Amino acid sequence: MRGINDGAEPRLVAEKPSLDCGLARRSTARETCSTAESGGTNPRSIHIVALGSECPGGVGPGEEIMGQGQLQGGLLWSYLGHGALVGPCDLESSLHNPAFMEYTSRVFGDVTVVVRDCPSWDLLDSDWTSVRKVLEQADILVIKYAVTDKLAFQQVRNGYAPRLRPLLRHWGVPVILVAVGARLNEFEWQHAQNLLSLSQCARYPDEGPPCTCPLCASDWSSCVPHSEGLQLSRDLGATYLELPSLNHVFVGRYFGSVLEYFMIQCLKHKAKERPEKRRGNKVNELRPPHLEQPARLPPIRVEESSFSQDMQWLLERGVQFADVAFYAGDSGKELGWAHAAVLCAVSPYFRQLLLGPKTRERPQSRCVCRERDGGPHSLLSTWDGGIIDDLPRSEGHMTGRLSRLVVKDPLLCMCLWETLMFIYRGAWEWEHLQEALEEKLKNSLAVAQLMERIRSLIGRDRGPRDTPSARAAQLGPQTLVNLFNSPLYSDVIFMVQGKSRANLFHATRIGKCIHRHTAVKGSVLPAHRAVLVARCDVMAAMFSGKYAEARSRVVPIHGVSSDTFLSFLEYLYTDSCCPASVLQAMAVLVCAEMYQVKRLQHLCEVCVCAYLQSMPSRELSSTGISVIRLLRRAKCHNAEQLYVWLLHFIANNYLIFSHKPDFLELSEEEREQVERLRWPSRGYLQELSEYQQRRRKLRKSRCIVM
């Protein structure tokens, strides 16, 4: 930062064209104003509202707002000069507030400038309604602060700027942010440059930065940096100025040039809004009716994902579907149970351990991983995999084969439950796992060793990509992607009796138990009971109760196409749904309503709305999709959000749907609601018809005169 004295150049940051000299701009302004306002009445006035104080300390509560002496030393008064008159202005009496000092002046010859200056920001807290009324009348807003008063600047930036920002963007009022004063270290630097001799100045080059030692930088904590003022101007959409002092050079040449630019633009804008035009008075000219914007379509709300909670529930309470048991290597005590499908989907080590060749030897490793201390080879080993399942099952549940694993590592044996919970929740919450291990082990070295072993178990070593952003991409729903439509550890097979042909080759690969069903037309979709029970309450009741599905491996599905049911299973495994069309989205919605999966139903509603809203008007009028029938199906299958959205969509496109034959299928209540929300409204169409008739009559009269 360069030193600034009375002859230094102030900073100007603006998105407008650069403004050079105030005197040249004033002469240009007179010519522009006389040109823009010629040929009519002359109600030329500009209202400027100023907030804040350019003096350090400002005006505190209980102090006098502003006196005549303080006013004459202010920024705007210095610019207006001797032509300013203090007194009441021509604004409405309801806007009068004693906290604002009002004075008027004339610029460009006959343009009246009304200034309302309020140096105290406390008025925004005590009487916000009055301040807002004053701001509504403003053509230009000037915000001032002292560079050496950092506390007041922080109050404005953190407390008052967020309140003013939406109003200023809505009204489109130009804003000028002015920082008055110079930082002490800048003056000290300039003063030192003036006092030193030429030989001494060689050690302090002109273009060098000021000293950053503690003595010279002692005032930095009390001064507002240039970067913070510039950031505040960007937040407010303002033009930023820094004035070292309020002398005639800085005020007239720099601040005056910027202010005159905005005054000229304001006068041009007012000249365009005047009803009179240069060629003549056309007040009685016909104007077309105003068409309002259509009402906004109601939003579709979707619940947050419960995938991690569902998998956690499966680990905690899904014992009747477990097929893996863990035992301690030293005592043989049972430690817990899990599901082979989930373990194999997450960990390649479990996949190799559980799917390897089965023998009746004593516990030993089935993994051929790296042979190092603490590696996966020393963590687990298999016990006779042919032992009959003896876990507690519900009545009627089919029994299977139970895989028993021996935990040989003592640390993993102590924290097996936390490790399994980490795996079931997606194997990506490493921070939560480390916190749980630290709370249980109370030993940082043991925690580090166990974390390294779990990484080897999962098959994910620490590397340069092991960052929070990289782990965020590996969310929990992605852990079961490998199980979707895969025969790996599949214990249930859905025979979808749809229109598609049978996949005989795929059915043969799944198992011998369905050879007798290969002659039936349909699709074969393998699945896993554990995942289905955790993700769908209807399937949990179907596979847990005294139903035929709980005792059978093959489950027939009727009334749903294979593509629709495959999309339904895809959501259960991946927690996502991407239908290819409106009709497929509606079909998946019906399937989700059948199995009571509310979140999938709402996702399908969002897809239907997105597809319909993306259609242009020409395609919407010629498409073969009947929106009225979609409305009927949404009401029939309890899609309340989609039903309300389609009613508003039909109303917003009334001119398209009202000419279709199926529009008569709407009930009387639905038709009344559509007529009430229709766009464009009947009143607008009537006004448009009258306007067109008047224009025809006016054209005929002009032709007769010609």
UniProtKB/TrEMBL annotation:
- Its name, as the record gives it, is Uncharacterized protein
